Hints:
Layout: E1 8-11, H1 13-17, H2 27-39, E2 44-49, H3 62-68, E3 76-80, H4 84-92, E4 97-103, H5 106-113, H6 117-134, E5 137-143, H7 156-168, E6 173-178, H8 185-195, E7 204-208, H9 215-224, E8 229-232, H10 252-261, H11 270-284, H12 291-300
Parallel strand pairs: 1-8, 2-3, 3-4, 4-5, 5-6, 6-7, 7-8
Helix pairs in contact: 2-3, 2-11, 7-8, 8-9
The structure holds 3-hydroxy-3-methylglutaryl-coenzyme A and magnesium ion.
3-hydroxy-3-methylglutaryl-coenzyme A binds near residues 49, 56 and 207.
Amino acid sequence: MNVPKKVRLVEVGPRDGLQNEKQPISVADKVRLVDDLTAAGLGYVEVGSFVSPKWVPQMAGSAEVFAQIQRKAGVTYAALAPNLKGFEAAVESGVKEVAVFAAASESFSQKNINCSIAESLERFVPVMEAAKAHGISVRGYVSCVLGCPYDGDVPAEQVAAVAAELYAMGCYEVSLGDTIGTGTAGATRHLINVVGTRVPRDKLAGHFHDTFGQAVANIHASLLEGIAVFDSSVAGLGGCPYAKGATGNVATEDVLYLLNGMGIETGIDMGKLVDAGQRICAVLGKENGSRVARAILAKRG
Ligand code: HMG
Ligand code: MG
């Protein structure tokens, strides 16, 4: 398998990164983050979620954020939609791409979206139909692909079955989520080989949380398996409210450093990206979670 020459990064910081924050974050700060990211050259930003505000209060202002961002031509601005109600709210906000999210483990499905895996897939059918009618693209997520915080090990075949269903119902791409960041490079390659028998590799993406510090290694392993789309979060922000202790996604800066070193094209400006991460970290009063960003900032002095 050839390593891809180009990689598409899906920036999930404004959604996956901020959803777990307990402190209020203003709409203006969220809008600034999205605009800073697109200014740095990110071509795909997950801006927010149209989920129940009782479940994820931080995403309640997503409609306002969508109303105020400066939409750049050629950039995809996406949102999570767990059901038809969320999809309709997304459409009202002018969203052109949504993501539905399922899990490969039953317990996580119940904790995250209050239904079984089978029920969640049934719930997505009307979303897919409505999306088709509105000309809206749908991305699919599978969570807990390399382990579940409640059920432990998750067989790769179980992940493949859920990914195949999402693909068959019309998701143009399926992102494989290592929600708790326990995966290792060997397990990642095994997972891709198993899921790759059911969904073409060029329709798969990797979504690695960095809880155990393995995300960059897992991305490298995925590149060797021909995967060319990765989700990442500027400054390594985030976590999932329903996966206690899980840290943020792999930092976008760390992935970019890996890809730049391998001569893989992304179109992203590292300096502007680091600035975007620093600005939101200052808003949150947090240390930057990207080791690459910290090293670059130390060099700048
Ligand atoms: P439920 O309580 O079973 O829903 O929640 P329900 O249909 O019974 O409705 C209950 C109430 O919620 C009703 O309001 C609905 O109107 C409202 P009430 O009558 O009580 O006032 N409601 C909504 N409100 C706004 N937007 C909606 C919506 N739907 C219903 N779309 C539900 C089910 C799916 C809604 C809930 O469990 C939920 O919102 N879950 C979201 C959880 C979430 O966002 N988790 C984080 C994102 S996933 C993630 O981080 C993983 C990922 O990064 C990949 C990885 O790392 O693995 C993607
Ligand atoms: Mg995630």
